[in-house]
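Holo model, calcium ion. Inputs:
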Amino acid sequence: MFDQLGTPSYMAPELWADYEVEYNSSVDMWAVGVLTYLLLCGRRPFDHPNRAEKKRMIEKDPLQFPSPAWDKISSEAKDFCSSLMKKRPKDRMSASEAIKHPWIKKSSTVHAGNDGAQELLAHQAIFDSLEAYEHADDLCRLSLQVMAFSTPPDKVDELRTVFQRIDEDDSGTISKEEFMKAMTSHPELTNERLEHLFSSLDTQSKGEIDYSQFIAATLGSQQRLATGSSILAAFNTLDFDHDGFISQSDLQEAFSGQLDSAMIDKLLSHRDASGRVNFDSFRSSIVALLQESDHAEHAQSVIDALSPKQFTSRSKDRKLKEVQANYSSGSGSR
Ligand SMILES: [Ca+2]
Ligand SMILES: [Ca+2]
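Output:
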């Protein structure tokens, strides 16, 4: 990157150079430092109405913590700001170092309380969903990913907490070691079983489970999220031309031609004689997954809410709208 962009007060020294200088993401860490400083004391660290003087201060002046504004602020907080506002980019704290800084560690509640194993033990439904996901077919997994993708982040607080507790090093992914550690809560599972379970979650064979994958795999545990209307919405997303069937061309369109034919074959393993998957068989595979997650009662309510009787002799769009309206007005059989 070479472009000189930014709000002056938040611009790192290297961004003020009179000639083109290559910079990297450490300019963002400087900006985090400025923001933290501002939040702690209410003033910018290098502030002057004259732009040239501001530039000089940012490039040359040492960072100060003037009295009385900083008198009651801990030395750890000051060190956090200083480490982020190092003049030389290579001396500056990185994002991965910042989350391990004592000031952050001390105030963070992410790893307070239960560890990953205790969380999984306390949330049997989440564990059941993880187990069931291993047996789900590819289309079903894809649907859960679509559903997870369209779920607002604040609706998956419980799942995020479990993920964060398992992700002990805050890397944003669950390594095999972290996974195995969390699974010590279920000693009944053999090592071989755990290996299978892990590889079903590690869809890209990267040796780790990423956040969106974990949310997709555990969404079935959240009964208010895995509803008939969200299954219908996922179907609609994958049925790209909205003809009521998921076909090879739908999947090619939906993924901009990035899926190879072997993957499409796998996704459409339950296709009918004409090579397509209709809504009923799509819904059945997700309901089967919910049943396997030990949510038989919930699965039944999804079946009831999306009974094919509701669909006969009406246009598909109207059907979809009615089912969604049923759910949003609370008159669905949840
Ligand atoms: Ca991790
Ligand atoms: Ca279609």
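The radius of gyration is 26 Å. DSSP finds 18 helices and four strands in the chain.
Archived with the compound record.
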